[in-house]
Design goal:
The structure holds 2 protein chains of 2 kinds. Chain A is mostly helical. Chain A is built from 19 helices and no strands. Chain B is an alpha/beta fold. Chain B has 7 helices and 8 strands, in the order ααααβαβαβββαβββ. In chain B, α5 links the parallel β1 and β2. In chain B, α2 packs antiparallel against α4 and α4 crosses α5. Classes of the chains: A mainly alpha, B alpha/beta. Chains A and B meet through α6 and α10 of A and α1, α2, α3 and α6 of B.
C-alpha cells in the first residue's frame, strides 16, 4: 500500500511546525539566559523513547504491507452488516488491539478508508459521525496506554525505570480494556439504528464487491508475527538493564525488515518525521524544566501539603489530566515525569507500578478531552474533512463528547487507584 | 449512498450484479442505475466477456475497471493484458482499492489518465468503454469515462462500446453523461 499523505489545512501545518520551533528555541534560549549547560541536559535526553517510536512505526509499515489490516477491517465491516452499533463495537475493538501494540496513527490511516466506504453506504447523521469518531479517538488513547509500547506516554513511563514492561502490561491491560468497554457501551447506547436491514445489507455487499480480491501475504504475516512475539517476550521477561527495550525494538525491526526483503517485499523507510520532531521538542523542554528545579519544588510542595499518599496521587492525576488535555499528552507526559519519579522514589516507593498506571491513565483521559490533546485527533479531523462524508468533525463539535470520554476514563482510573493502591 | 463512486471503482456490471440482488436497494437507486435482474447481468457479463475474448486482441484498455468482466476473462484463461485507465481526479484511496481488487489469474496494468500504454497498437489492442445506449443513437457513460474516451479517440484501432442494459430500457437520470458515438468503431449490446 502506498504511504499515505495527510493533508492538513495550511494554518494547522504552520501551527504544528511553529510549535516545534518555539519549544526548541524558547527552551534553548532559557538555558542560555539561566546559564544552564545544554550539554548536561542532553546527557539525560531520552533518545531511547525516540528510538522505540521510530522502530515501532517502521515495524507497523511492514505489517501494513501484508494487507492484514485491510482484510480484518473489511471482515469486520461485513460482520457488522452495516449496523451502526456493531460498526462502533467491532471497529472500536479493532482499534484498541492495534493501538496497544502498533503505531495507532498508521493504523488509523489504513483502517479509515474502509470505514469511510462503509459509512458512506449507511444512512449517516452528524450525531453518529461525532459519536463514532469521538469514541474511536478515545479508544486510540486507551489502547495506546494499555501496553508499554502503545504510545509515547507509555514508552516514556517504561523507559523511566519506575516500572518494567511486564509489570506495566499486567496492570494496565485489564484497566484500559475495561475502560474501552465502558466507552463503547456508553456510546452504543446513544446510537439509534433505524435504517432498513435491506439497505444496510446492500451497503455491505457493495463494500464486499470493492474489496473482494484483496490479497493477504500470509508468509510475511506469519514471519512478522513470530518476530513480534519474540520481541514481546524479550520486553516482558528480559531484564531492562541487560537488554534495554530500545535495543529489542531496533533488533526486532532489523530482522523483520531483512525477512521482508528476503520475501521480495519493498521496504518503505517512511516515518512521520514531524511527530518525531514534536516529541523530541517535548523531551527537550521537559529536560530544561527539570534542570531548573521547578518540578522538584512542585513535588516537594505537594508532598508537604498532602500527607495521605492516596490523596496525593489523586491530586497529581487530576493535575496531569488537565495539563494533558490543555497542552496535549506529549508535553504533559514529559513535564510531569520528574514529579512522578520523585514520588516513586519517596512517598509511594512501594506502589511505584500502580503510580505508573495512574499516571498513564490520567494522561490518557486528558488526551481524550479536546481534539488537539492527541495527535490522532487532528489526523482524524483532517481525514474526515477530506473524505466527503458531508459532515465536519472539528474541535467544537468534539468538545461535548470529549468531556464524556474524559469523565468516563477518570472515574474508572480514580476508582481503580482508590481500590488498589 | 454514493453509488456512482462505486461504479467508478468496480464497473457498471459488478455494481448492477450487487444492486440487482436487493429489491429495496434497486428501487432506491432507480434514478442512478437501470433496473435489471441479477440473472440478466450475469448472462450479459458472460456474453460480453466472450465477445471480447473472440476479438483476438491481446491488450484491452478498459476505460472503467469492469471487475466482473475481468473475472470472466480470467476464468476463460484469456492470455492477454487488461490495462485499466484511472481518471486523474479520482481519490487516492479509490485508486489504491482498485489496484488491490484486481482478480487473480489475469495480467493487468494500471495507468493514469493521459498516459499511453506501451506497445499498444491497433493490431493488438482495443479500447473498451462500458455504458448504456438509448434508442440506438444516444450513448451514455460516466462523465470521467466520456472525457477519457474523447482523449483516446485518435487511436486507430477498435474502440468498443459495451452496452450494460437491455435495449430500449429507460436510461437513469442521474450520474451519466452523453458520449460521442463517433468515438466508437464497434458496439456490443445484449442479444438476450
Amino acid at each position: 500500500m502506498k504511504q499515505e499523505v495527510i493533508h492538513l489545512s495550511p494554518p494547522l501545518k504552520i501551527i504544528s511546525f511553529l510549535l516545534i520551533a518555539v519549544i526548541f528555541v524558547t527552551s534553548a534560549s532559557y538555558c542560555m539566559i539561566m546559564n544552564l549547560p545544554i550539554a548536561d541536559i542532553m546527557k539525560n535526553f531520552q533518545y531511547n523513547v525516540l528510538v522505540i517510536l521510530i522502530s515501532m512505526e517502521l515495524f507497523t509499515n511492514l505489517i501494513v504491507e501484508t494487507g492484514i489490516m485491510q482484510v480484518i477491517a473489511v471482515k469486520l465491516a461485513l460482520r457488522s452488516n452495516g449496523n451502526k452499533k456493531a460498526v462502533l463495537v467491532l471497529f472500536g475493538s479493532m482499534m484498541f488491539v492495534i493501538s496497544s501494540f502498533l503505531n495507532n496513527i498508521t493504523a488509523v490511516m489504513i483502517i479509515l478508508p474502509v470505514i469511510f466506504v462503509l459509512l458512506k453506504a449507511v444512512d449517516l447523521t452528524q450525531k453518529y459521525v461525532r459519536i463514532f469518531f469521538g469514541a474511536l479517538l478515545a479508544i486510540c488513547n486507551t489502547g495506546g496506554a494499555s501496553s508499554p509500547i502503545g504510545d509515547f506516554p507509555a514508552i516514556i513511563i517504561m523507559t523511566s525505570g519506575i516500572t518494567t514492561f511486564f509489570d506495566y502490561l499486567r496492570r494496565a491491560m485489564p484497566i484500559f480494556l475495561f475502560t474501552t468497554m465502558a466507552i463503547i457501551c456508553y456510546w452504543s447506547l446513544k446510537i439509534s439504528d433505524k435504517e432498513s436491514r435491506e439497505l444496510q445489507s446492500l451497503g455491505v455487499n457493495l463494500l464486499r464487491a470493492r474489496h473482494k480480491h484483496i490479497k493477504l501475504d500470509k508468509k510475511l504475516l506469519y514471519a512478522l508475527c513470530v518476530i513480534f512475539t519474540i520481541m514481546f517476550l524479550t520486553w516482558s521477561f528480559a531484564p531492562q538493564e541487560i537488554i534495554p527495550p530500545e535495543v529489542v525494538a531496533v533488533l526486532g525491526y532489523a530482522v523483520a525488515a531483512a525477512v521482508s526483503a528476503l520475501l521480495g517485499k519493498k521496504i518503505k523507510l517512511t516515518i512521520d518525521f514531524k511527530a518525531v520532531l514534536t516529541i523530541a521538542s517535548f523531551l527537550f523542554m521537559a529536560g530544561v524544566i527539570s534542570a531548573t528545579g521547578i518540578l522538584d519544588r512542585m513535588a516537594f510542595i505537594l508532598k508537604d501539603n498532602i500527607s495521605d499518599p492516596r490523596l496525593l496521587l489523586i491530586t497529581i492525576m487530576l493535575i496531569t489530566s488537565i495539563l494533558s488535555g490543555l497542552c496535549s499528552a506529549g508535553p504533559a507526559a514529559a513535564a510531569m515525569m520528574p514529579v512522578i519519579i520523585d514520588l516513586c522514589q519517596t512517598t509511594l516507593s512501594s506502589q511505584s507500578h500502580w503510580v505508573a498506571i495512574a499516571y498513564a491513565a490520567s494522561i490518557c483521559a486528558g488526551s481524550s478531552f479536546f481534539l488537539w490533546s492527541a495527535t490522532a485527533g487532528f489526523i482524524l479531523s483532517a481525514k474526515i474533512e477530506n473524505a466527503d462524508l458531508g459532515f465536519v468533525w472539528g474541535a467544537g463539535g468534539y468538545l461535548k463528547y470529549g468531556l464524556v470520554n474524559y469523565v468516563i476514563q477518570m472515574i474508572i482510573a480514580l476508582y481503580a487507584i482508590i481500590l488498589l493502591v | 449512498m454514493n453509488i456512482m463512486s462505486t461504479v467508478e471503482e468496480i464497473g457498471i456490471l459488478e455494481t448492477l450484479k450487487v444492486v440487482a440482488a436487493n429489491n429495496a436497494g434497486q428501487k432506491m437507486l432507480a434514478t442512478h442505475l437501470p433496473i435489471v435482474s441479477k440473472d440478466y447481468v450475469e448472462i450479459l457479463t458472460l456474453n460480453l466477456a466472450e465477445a471480447l475474448f473472440n476479438t483476438g486482441k491481446r491488450k484491452l484498455l478498459l476505460i472503467l475497471p469492469e471487475i466482473a468482466l475481468l473475472e470472466c476473462l480470467a476464468e476463460m484463461n484469456w492470455r492477454g493484458k487488461a490495462i485499466i485507465l484511472l481518471p486523474f481526479d479520482m481519490e487516492v484511496e479509490s485508486k489504491e482499492r482498485i489496484k488491490s481488487n484486481i482478480p487473480a489469474g489475469i495480467e493487468t496494468e494500471i495507468i493514469d489518465e493521459g498516459a499511453y500504454p506501451s506497445k499498444f497498437r491497433p493490431d493488438n489492442g482495443a479500447i473498451v468503454c462500458t455504458g448504456m445506449i438509448q434508442n440506438d443513437f444516444f450513448y451514455y457513460t460516466l462523465p470521467a469515462s466520456s472525457r477519457m474516451m474523447g482523449q483516446y479517440r485518435q487511436f486507430n484501432g477498435e474502440k468498443l462500446f459495451l452496452s450494460c442494459c437491455p435495449k430500449y430500457s429507460k436510461i437513469p437520470e442521474t450520474g451519466w453523461t452523453y458520449c460521442d458515438r463517433e468515438c466508437f468503431s464497434l458496439i456490443m449490446e445484449d442479444t438476450l
